[in-house]
Structure formats: C-alpha cells, structure tokens
Amino acid sequence: QMPWMEKELQYLAYQALKRLARVDPGKEYTLEELRAQLKLLAAAPSLWPVKGPITSDFGWRRALFDSNGREFHTGLDIGVWYYTPVHATKDGTVLYAGWMQGYGNAVEIEHEMGYTTLYGHNSSLKVKAGQQVKAGDVVALSGQTGYANGPHVHYEIRMNGKPVDPMRFLDLAP
Predict the structure, then answer these.
(1) Average model confidence (pLDDT) across the chain
(2) CB of 24 closer than 8 Å to CB of 36
(3) Domain assignments of the chain as residue spans, ordered by start
(4) CA-based, 20 to 30 A from 152: which of 7, 86, 119, 129?
(5) What is the pLDDT of residues 65-116, one digit of tens each?
(6) What is the C-alpha separation between 9 and 62, in angstroms, rounded?
(7) What residues of the chain score a pLDDT lower than 50?
(8) DSSP for 19-54?
(9) CB 108, CB 130: distance < 8 Å
(10) Closest CA to 104 of 85, 123, 86, 87
C-alpha cells in the first residue's frame, strides 16, 4: 500500500468517526459496529428539503394552540413562504401523498435501511404513491395546511417507524 493511500484512508476513517460522534455521542465502536453504522449513516437522508430558518426543533415544546400544554414535536419546522419547492432528501419510493391528519397535504417517502421521511403542511403535492424519486426531486410546494400556524415545511426522519432528530443527519450533508 502506498503511503499517500494510507494517509487518505486514515483521514476518511477520522471523518467517519467524527460524523458518527454527532449521531451517537460518547459511543465507541468495534470494527464490525463501525461498518454497520457507516452503512446506516450512508443510507440516512442528509439533504435539507428547503432552505430556511428552523422555526421549531425536534422534541418537547409549548403546545401551539394550548398555552398551558406541552407536546412532543416529531420533526423540524423550516420557515419558508408559500409555494416554495420542497425536495426529496434521499432517493426512495413515495409511500403516501395526500391529506394526513395534523400534517395537512403530506408526502411520505421510504428510503433504504429502514428510513422514511415525511414532508408536511404543503399547499400542493407533486408526486403520487408508488412513484420513485431521486434526492433533490421536487415532491411538493410548501404551504400552511393541517395543524399549522404559518407557512412552513414540517420535516421528519423516521428510523424503523420511530421519529429521530433530523439535525443528527442534516449537518452531515457534504
């Protein structure tokens, strides 16, 4: 093996471990675990669906329409104006495109390795169930449908059906 290749491999391993530290802080990996985690990481949706400010984070928050209540927010809200193109964040198959309680006009896309993404509160949908999409394809136009108090995109990443914080993956985009 040539010295420059070894340095390149060391650099790539370092970058991979740095990224994994953001996904699962404090975890140390065996080589087998590292391989499995790198496959999961490579399959993760890592692009932003729209460009805009985050108006609500993943996790517990004050309930939108009940000043005394709290609710768990299962995604990110990204503030954009009406009719902003919403992009698929990874290649996949559209599982659902239509009205979804709470989310209004929504698109759900299945990706590999157990990941799904959901894009909610759209004014109109540009895809149909069963359709194949590529990362970057326009799947909807943003809006304020469903349980929303202003125009934005609600973006969720689920892993094996369980919502995970999209920020664990979005910052990983090159």
Answers:
(1) 89
(2) no
(3) 3-43, 54-170
(4) 129
(5) 666 788 888 999 999 999 999 999 999 999 999 999 999 999 999 999 999 9
(6) 46
(7) 1, 174
(8) HHHHHSTT----HHHHHHHHHHHHHS--S-SS-S-E
(9) no
(10) 123
The C-alpha atoms of residue 20 and residue 130 are separated, in whole angstroms, by 32
What is the amino acid identity at position 12?
L
CA nearest neighbour of 104 among 56, 134, 140, 145: 145
Q: Which helix (H) or strand (E) holds 9?
A: helix 3-23
CATH of 54-170 given 1.10.540.10, 1.10.3210.10, 1.25.40.10, 2.70.70.10: 2.70.70.10
Contact 172, 44 (CB under 8 A): yes
Among residues 133, 143, 77, 81, which one has the least CA distance to residue 108?
133
The tokens of 155 are what? Answer: 């973006």
**Amino acid letter for position 95:** L
Is the C-alpha dihedral spanning 150, 166, 172, 18 positive or negative? positive
